[in-house]
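Let us walk through a complete example step by step. Step one is to write down the protein sequence. Step two is to encode the small molecule, zinc ion, as a SMILES string so that its atoms and bonds are unambiguous. Step three, shown after the inputs, is the structure prediction itself.
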Amino acid sequence: MTDFNENDLWQAVQDRNADYDGRFYYGVMTTGVFCRPSCPSRGAKRENVRFFTKPSEAEAAGLRPCLRCHPLQDNPTSVLMTEAAHYIEGHADESISLSRLSNEFGLSATHLQKSFKRQHGISPKEYQNAHRLKKLKDALKSGDDISGAIYEAGYGSVSRVYEQVDGRIGMTLSAYRDGGKGEKIAYVIRNTALGPIIMAATNRGVCFIHFGNDENILLSLLSKEYPQAELLPSSAVDTPELALWVEALDHHLSHNAPRPDIPLHLNGTAFQMRVWRFLMSVPEGEVKSYSEVAQAIGSPKAIRAAATACTVNNIAILIPCHRVLRSDGSLGGYRWGLARKRTLIDQERNNISNSA
Ligand SMILES: [Zn+2]
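Step three: the predicted structure of the complex.
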């Protein structure tokens, strides 16, 4: 241990600093275990700790390798990333920020995000969303009651919709340009208080909610948006969650139930997604002008583009483009008719004043 003094090493252990992995190991003499500096286990006291340059030295001192950080394995990050995935599964109903994971596993947020993506192919947030969806499906298949299943899977808190907006996934632009080629899209059609509605979802979340006069029109709207995708009625595929979501949406529209917490699969340009994400953060009962939207997403001059992004929104209600008005307070446009827009705004204002 010529390069470092022990205070530095102890500091690295306390910081669980992965930069020191492979450069030294520490043993906890009271437990008989030795670890990498980044080991997520905690609680060793300084006086019980000894430092080693190589695992063989620790073993010679009678210590055995830790089962959490696997100091004998070559690639500690991959072990940590497996643990991170388990951690997310174990806390799927909580809000798991990158900084929380970064604290838990002793890696910088950037390093963690990159390593996780390299190993699992998706970001930690996407992993959590996918896991919740799987849990929900499993619970529904095993016959759990609907609201229990929602909570069990970590959905069901309306506030969480807003927290997790940034974690929502967008279809890659190329897939979008290809008209959804290779995507399987399940859909369900239902009558609501505001008229017939179609809801469609990929395996990552809801990508399409439109109002329309009848089933044929609704289906043609969907196939126009995704000409290359395989469109399947929900009843024909394994998507119990879709029936559940459209029911929750109907309750929201008919009985003023809270807006359901539903994973979304956004499809659009980066600019459009910025607009939509901002819209999802506008609280119920509030309205914004197109110029306020442009300002809020950091492009104050792009008022017309912001208005267009509202116009091409494919996810009615859940991306609340109905909350955007002209700056003179007039309704502006609405893809699904001004009467619906008026109703939605009035309903939300009533909800707020009733609950105040
Ligand atoms: Zn360890």
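Step four is interpretation. The CA atoms of residues 204 and 265 lie 6 Å apart.
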